[in-house]
Amino acid sequence: MFKEQYEVVGPTDPVFAVAGEDVILPCSVKPNISVVDMRVEWYRSDLKDSQPVHLYEDHEDKNTDQIQSYRGRTNLNHQQLQRGNASLKLSSVRVSDEALYKCFIQSRSWYDEATVNVNVEGAKTIEN
């Protein structure tokens, strides 16, 4: 019996983001198989409720239960999913986005997850 086995890989170092700008949270599978037919869920490990930061399932983004503060600010590149790349684009970064994120990828017979540590540098104020 064939078992799908893959490893979900995130960055080894923290991802630095600047408040107000966009950032990519890297996440991919090894080997580079398509994750189009899988469930891809991004969530924050520090938030106990099960609301996702971003959810892709059944070939579409399902963000009805998405955390309110992330509405309209997350994006998965569906063409990249075919290459095993499930990186999340987060737009208009806020200081409150600083957290540990989990990239969880689940197929019919297997799942794995990776952690992405996001550090946000606040907008610096210039003092006269």
From TrEMBL:
Record bears the keyword DNA-binding: no
GO BP term (any one): regulation of T cell activation
Family matches, as Pfam families: V-set
GO cellular component, one term: membrane
Subcellular location: Membrane
Keywords: Disulfide bond, Glycoprotein, Immunoglobulin domain, Membrane, Signal
Entry superkingdom: Eukaryota
PROSITE patterns, sorted: IG_LIKE (PS50835)
Stored SMART domains: IG (SM00409), IGv (SM00406)
Domain Ig-like intervals: 20-119
Protein name: Ig-like domain-containing protein
